[in-house]
Structures are given as structure tokens and as C-alpha cells.
Amino acid sequence: AQSVTQLGSHVSVSEGALVLLRCNYSSSVPPYLFWYVQYPNQGLQLLLKYTTGATLVKGINGFEAEFKKSETSFHLTKPSAHMSDAAEYFCAVRLNNAGNMLTFGGGTRLMVKP
Amino acid sequence: GAGVSQSPSNKVTEKGKDVELRCDPISGHTALYWYRQSLGQGLEFLIYFQGNSAPDKSGLPSDRFSAERTGGSVSTLTIQRTQQEDSAVYLCASSLGRGGGARTSGSTQETQYFGPGTRLLVL
């Protein structure tokens, strides 16, 4: 079975500060990894993904994430937070050898203070 | 537009009534997914369609839930005899899906694109 854990249901940072949203997964095989963002009353928008290859992945809006197999982590970072980054962020995994559904973490609500 | 669309955007119903939720995937996408987003359970997978294959129904919470996909495109999620715990946002996603042959590294086939969701409230 696979699961996804996002540490911290709420994270608050000041505008301009580093954003770090944590994601750990449990899987017996290397999964595909995704980060999605959800703005209020909207659907999920893909930020970035890791499938194979380079473990540091760059996404939209200045976000990036690094796949660390030894730590089973896929933390999301952004060097400098912007007010428009306030949203809910979801980490998700998909096993690459069985089934196509995504398993999501519980989500982290990012708040950005002026 | 070129994205996934869902209708209605909001639905209020009375307990015990049946509801139908519709999803129009991105043109050309062979895979379609339904998820549910609720306060208590987070984001949960419900059902997955891939081409003409039998759907993966492993996430459906009860036999009151069913879904079909006609003509390999539009999908309808039906909830019979709705209960208050069915209140949630129902999200649909589509992806290019699997073609024949080996998986391609870094393929965009794996990316799921989500619709705006249908917010269901059961009174």
C-alpha cells in the first residue's frame, strides 16, 4: 500500500520568505510524484511532477521540488513567497506499475503574511 | 475551452434523492478519473476509466455510487439515495492515458488535468 504524508496542515510565511512544504511517501517501488495547487473554489492545478531522470524538478510560479529516494521525500520549495502563493497544496503519488489513480496527502494550506 | 469541464458547478439536494454529475474530459484524453474531496477524508480516488477497458471501481465507497463513460468521452457519476456524508466536492480529471507498448520516460501521459469540480450539498 502507498500513502502520502504532508507535515503541517497549515504553514504561514512572510512575503519574501522561503516556502517549504513537506511531503513524505511510503511505497515499495519508486512512484511518480506530483504537487498540485488549489486556489479557493477552483480545481487542482499541476505545479510540477517527477517521473524519472533529474531528481530536482522545476515547476510553475517559481516552485521546485527534489525527489530524495533515501528519505522517501518530495518537499516543495520556493525561495521567496508572494501573496499570490496563498493556496492549498497537495502532494500526490502514483505507482508506476499498478493502477493509475493518484493518492493524495492531506494538503497544506499556505498563508502569506504581508 | 480546452480544459476539463464539469457540471453542475454546485448542486443542492435532499437526502434520499439521486444526483448525476457530469464530466467532459480534454479532447483526446483516453483516461478519466473521479475523485472526491471532503473535509473529513481529504482527496480520495473513486473510479478510473481507461479507453474501452473495464473501469477500476476500487475507490467507490458504496454501491450507491456508480459511473459510466459513454463513447469514450463524457462521464457521468451517479449517486443514488444520497446521504449527508456524500456532501463533498467531486473532481474529475483526465489524462492522455496509456497507449500500446512500453511506458515512456517522463511522458505527459501520466499528468492528470483536473476540472473545477462539482460542489454537492446534501441536506
Architecture blueprint of SSEs:
The complex is a heterodimer of chains A (114) and B (123).
Chain A: E1 3-5, E2 10-14, E3 19-21, E4 24-26, E5 31-38, E6 44-50, E7 56-58, E8 64-68, E9 73-78, E10 87-95, E11 103-104, E12 108-113
Parallel strand pairs in A: 2-12
Antiparallel strand pairs in A: 1-4, 3-9, 5-6, 5-10, 7-8, 8-9, 10-11, 10-12
Chain B: E1 5-7, E2 10-13, E3 19-24, E4 31-38, E5 42-50, E6 65-69, E7 75-79, E8 88-95, E9 113-114, E10 118-122
Parallel strand pairs in B: 2-10
Antiparallel strand pairs in B: 1-3, 3-7, 4-5, 4-8, 6-7, 8-9, 8-10
Short description:
Chain A is an all-beta fold. Helices cover 0% and strands 53% of the residues of chain A. In chain B, strands 2, 4, 5, 8, 9 and 10 form a six-stranded mixed sheet that branches. In chain B, strands 1-3-7-6 form a four-stranded antiparallel sheet, with no helix packed on it.
Structure, described:
Chain A contains no helices and 12 strands. Chain A has 114 residues and is mainly β. In chain A, strand 10 and strand 11 (103-104) form a beta hairpin. The N and C termini of chain A lie far apart (41 Å). Chain B is mostly beta strands. Chain B contains no helices and 10 strands. In chain B, the strands form 2 sheets. In chain B, strands 2, 4, 5, 8, 9 and 10 form a 6-stranded mixed sheet that branches. Chain B is globular. Chain B starts with a strand and ends with a strand. Residues 100-107 of chain B have low confidence and may be disordered. Chain A binds chain B through residues 32, 34, 36, 41-46, 49, 51-53, 90, 92, 94, 96, 99-107, and chain B through 4, 31, 33, 35, 42-45, 48, 50, 56, 58-59, 91, 93, 95, 97-98, 103, 105-107, 110-117.
